[in-house]
Design goal:
mainly alpha; 60% helix
Length: 138
């Protein structure tokens, strides 16, 4: 979904339809300022950084893919397969380059390490690999 003045205004109007009259009045005032129809107020929508917006759905899918690759690699390593061979297998099956797989696994391990530093007692952030690739996050 593209975020622009029209789509944001439409979303706000849908929210206003489910609010009480006082809140709906305020939200519709914001929509009017956003669309430029309010004679006293103007609200502009700007993207802070140039570049492609990555939706939360895409970001979540990438995170899940990276975690899947990490667990797949850990499983193959526990079976005695060398890291390079396991990564080559993952890359071939998933249709990704070896560099992409290595980067994804490193990102997944980084996520687990950050989670472990924040929640040391939680079993949810244990790295499944017998010999994790990264020792620390800089």
């Amino acid at each position: 979904m593209e975020f622009n003045t029209g789509t944001i205004a439409q979303m706000l109007l849908e929210v206003a339809d489910h609010c009480d009259d006082g809140e709906a009045f305020t939200i519709r005032g914001v929509v009017n300022a956003l669309l430029g129809v309010d004679e006293n107020h103007v609200l502009t929508l700007q993207q802070r950084k140039r570049g492609k917006f990555v939706s939360p759905t895409e970001s979540s899918a990438k995170h899940n893919r990276n975690q899947k690759w990490l667990h797949w690699l850990a499983h193959r390593e526990r079976e005695g397969i060398k890291t390079e061979a396991a990564v080559a297998e993952i890359a071939e099956v998933e249709g990704a380059s070896r560099a992409t797989v290595f980067a994804g696994i490193k990102a997944a391990e980084g996520f687990l390490q950050r989670g472990q530093s924040m929640f040391p007692e939680s079993p949810n952030f244990q790295n499944p690999r017998p010999n994790p690739a990264i020792k620390r996050i800089t």
